Amino acid sequence: MSMSGSVGAATPKQQELKPLFEPLKLGQLELPNRILMAPLTRNRAHADGTPKEMAATYYSQRASAGLIISEATQISPMGKGYIDTPGIYEDRHVEGWKAVTDAVHEKGGRIICQLWHVGRISHTSLLPDGAQPHAPSAIAADAQTFTPNGFEPTSEPKAMTTDDIKRTVDDYAHAAKQALAAGFDGVEVHAANGYLLDQFIRDKSNKREDAYGGSVENRLRFLREVLDGVTAAIGADRTGIRLSPLGTFNDISDSDPETTFSEAVALLNPYGLAYCHFLERFGGDVPDTDLETLGRISSGFDGPYIANGNFDAEEAARWIAKERCDAVTFGKLFIANPDLPKRLALGAALNDWNQDTFYGGGEERYIDYPFLEEDIEEETPKG
Ligand code: 8OZ
Q1: DSSP assignment of 61-74
Q2: Rounded CA gap, 230 and 227, in Å?
Q3: Which one from 58, 195, 212, 271 is the annotated catalytic residue?
Q4: Each residue's pLDDT tens digit, 13-32
Q5: CA 41 – ligand 1 centroid, Å
Q6: What is the pLDDT of residues 318-352, one digit of tens each?
Q7: Is 154 left (phi over 0), alpha (psi -120 to 50) or beta?
Q8: E strands along 34-186, which residues?
Q9: Mean pLDDT over all residues of the chain?
């Protein structure tokens, strides 16, 4: 029996989606397609930050992605900002993640770990000994987080000392090594969405008067030190980065984002990173972003560029065909369709996602979204 879809001439739809199925090299990583799984917070880890067994099922079900970027994973106890997110600093975290990376590799996939420090987007109830969250400046975010008591406003942060900054840089490097020890194929430094690195970069949240604040160069100093630490620990060709130059999530903004992020991208170039990844659009009730500005900023990056933000497959293929990006990450589509590349290759229908089970919960709508075969079996009348 032959696979339908691989027989005969390609349909117009298959022709349109062809750019998604070209292989791509990102540093050390060789991807068989450009349909990547976005980092997705799911809040299903053990309270101590160790991934649960079902995470191995969840990620390995999605191993046909060109690349899986893990959910945001804290680099230290101070990096945590939400209930039941995973960590990658303790050896027990490494053991837990090893089961995940092994399962993905057994299915022929690739997975990297997104390294996360939330900074001021946290709550004292989530931090060691009820500590105040760390931030560039002692300015609370007008934002909420979910804690053991439900949604709560984020706590008043304290301005990090230079010793705090040094320790945090070391925590990033340590976490990167732990990620490789856990079998990840690399890491993505999360410098987006109003978390710690982004808080240093943008001038709404960084009012420091020392070497880490003021000029754009100074606001980028912490990012530079983190990248120095991470790339020295595991190599630039296993390190990617995620930025959200026009994002406003978590009460963040910059008075001149094009200058700030063009300089950020110029800073990245000499490292020879595996890739740069932007959130370009945010969906929901967030106003449309200026895609032209984002295109100018991202085109300053010398290496592979990955776009994210509510793409459907057709639009992703068009962006790749016109070289606006090299690959696209899909979030909600991968939550609901573990076999997304196959469905797109065959022009098959897509499952809908259930928003109520994105954050927290158990196996339901985590590891039970149907594969194509199951759909067909269910829908084919028996006898
Ligand atoms: C949604 C809920 C909690 C965290 C991000 C890590 O925005 C997140 C996140 C998203 O990058």
Answers
A1: HTTTSS-EEEEEEE
A2: 5
A3: 195
A4: 889 999 999 999 999 999 99
A5: 6
A6: 999 999 999 999 999 999 999 999 999 999 999 99
A7: beta
A8: 35-37, 68-74, 111-116, 134-135, 144-147, 150-153, 158-159
A9: 95
Give the number of the atom of ligand 1 that is nearest the alpha carbon of residue 145.
3
In angstroms, what is the span from residue 89 Cα to ligand 1's centroid?
19
Q: What domains appear along the chain, each with residue ranges and CATH number? A: 12-357 (3.20.20.70)
Q: Which two tokens stand for residue 153?
A: 């406003």
Q: Please work out whether the CB of residue 41 comes within 6 Å of at least one atom of ligand 1.
A: yes
Contacting residues for 382 by C-beta, under 8 A, at least 6 apart: none
In angstroms, rounded to a whole number, what is the distance separating the alpha carbons of residues 211 and 160?
13
C-alpha distances in angstroms, 250 versus 114, 324, 335?
A: 18, 27, 23
The verdict on whether 195 is a catalytic residue reads yes
- Does any ligand 1 atom lie closer than 6 A to the CB of residue 122? no
Cβ of 176 below 6 Å from ligand 1: no
Query: What is the band of 275 on the pLDDT scale with cuts at 50, 70, 90?
Result: very high
pLDDT > 60? residue 1: no
Strand, coil or helix: what is 240?
Answer: strand
